[in-house]
Amino acid sequence: MMKTNRTTVGSLVTLSALLVTPVLADENMYGTPKDASVCLRGDFVGSGWQESASDACKAELARRLELCLKDPDQRKIIDDPKYSAHSDPREYCKETAERWVEQQMNLFLKEQEAEKDEAEKKAKLQGTDVPKAAMHDGALEKAVATAYGKAYPGNKILKVVLGHWADEYEKDALGRVTGRDLYATVVNRHPDGKCELHGELWLQRGHGKAFSGPLSERGAGSLETSEISCSKIDGGGGAKKKH
User: Fold this and answer.
1) Which of 66, 110, 188, 223 supports an S-S bond with 155, CB 3.0-4.6 Å?
2) Which of 30, 83, 80 is nearest to 59 (CA)?
3) What mean pLDDT value characterizes the chain?
4) Coil, strand, or helix at residue 176?
């Protein structure tokens, strides 16, 4: 049998792809992404499948090769003398099977990665709870809520959980105390319905050790946010407290 140039065959595979290749996940590719997953242990490089591919992978490629040879749409290419695939149908279908299996392998890997990410996201969500308050002070809770509301006006405040005042004071370049920081978490609901824990330091200005006035976001890397299941916030309805 005459050896067909791989470059020529490859160009014809591309041509046939334009003519008859179905949607990527369609089973008319002679199999599903799940079927193609047996080749994940195979060794694929640009020039084709290596001999080191697993037996299951080789069997899947061989199965698809035979289906390609019997495919009426592929026969339109194979049986037409004007195409080089006509001189070596098996090589043509071999490369067609390899290409489709590679595409479905990549799709399978993406699906697996997406499922893994979703499972990890759900696990993290289930493991996230509203923190316990270190102290309770209605005036401070209201001050945090006011500062948060100015920065994130689109989010609904469900609860404010106070942490501790930072041990170190804010100081200017001369070492003079200019403020103090309170860590607090704002439990909130976004417009899209997601609930979130927004924890960070909130700055209160002052001179010496006399602090008063409103709070503001300190910033400087103190922000921590995480999604939380809305069902974990006061039975799912969110705090009824209004600030």
Assistant:
1) 188
2) 30
3) 84
4) coil
